[in-house]
Amino acid sequence: QTVLTQEPSLTVSPGGTVTLTCASSSGAVTTVDYPSWFQQKPGQTPRALIYSTTEKHSWTPARFSGSLLGGKAALTLSGVQPEDEAEYYCLLHSGGGWVFGGGTKVNVL
Amino acid sequence: QVQLVQSGAEIKNPGASVKVSCKASGYSFATFYMHWVRRAPGQEFEWLGVINPTGGSRNYAQKFQGRLTMSTDTSTSTVYMALTSLRSDDTAVYYCARGGPSKSMDVWGQGTTVSVSS
Known about the structure:
With about 110 residues, chain A is an all-beta fold. Helices cover about 0% and strands about 55% of the residues of chain A. In chain A, the strands form two sheets. In chain A, strands 2, 4, 5, 6, 9, 10 and 11 form a seven-stranded mixed sheet that branches. In chain A, strands 1-3-8-7 form a four-stranded antiparallel sheet, with no helix packed on it. In chain A, a hairpin with a 2-residue loop joins strand 7 (about 65-70) and strand 8. Chain A is globular. Chain B contains no helices and eleven strands. Chain B has strands at about 5, 10, 20-25, 35-40, 45-50, 60, 70-75, 80-85, 90-100, 105-110, 110-115. In chain B, strands 2, 4, 5, 6, 9, 10 and 11 form a seven-stranded mixed sheet that branches. In chain B, strands 1-3-8-7 form a four-stranded antiparallel sheet, with no helix packed on it. In chain B, a hairpin with a 4-residue loop joins strand 7 (about 70-75) and strand 8. Chain B is globular and about 40 Å long. Classes of the chains: A mainly beta (about 110), B mainly beta (about 120). The interface of A and B includes residues 55 and 97 of A.
């Protein structure tokens, strides 16, 4: 069973840039894992942000971008806004099913 | 707009069964697969399975084989998730999530809390 590891928490100043990563216990994350990212705020429904490594949904703000970085999936927030404070999760298609990361809490201070 | 509306909270005894519904609107129901995901208190999100809304195929996580059944009603654009032989560690918020482009989950339901306790 693949385990995905994310940073537990990161802090960024408003207007700054932060990169979150998602590492797989099965080895390097690649595009065929179809990494995606979603955001969840307390009491709210998860909101998808990125799919297929780099693609944005129609509602995804331009400041969010996805990539592969050193064998990991990565989500970069550029020009961070106070409303970006949330938990962020990666999701991979792996072994015929889907696996979630444990989430990264992004604090905007 | 695309919306997934789930049924209300459930409280069940150990050993009982639960059936949660997810009603889709705002898009062509037959075109998108539907996933079920859960999150237990203090735990990570966990994928349960996925169903083709026309009912042709299902893929369940191995952990839930034998206890999980997904079904659909195309006349009402509703997907159902039934879990049997409930245990306390099945206590969780259960979500339906539409299968989006490139194996993503692009729209999520609001979640249904299932509590299993004697």
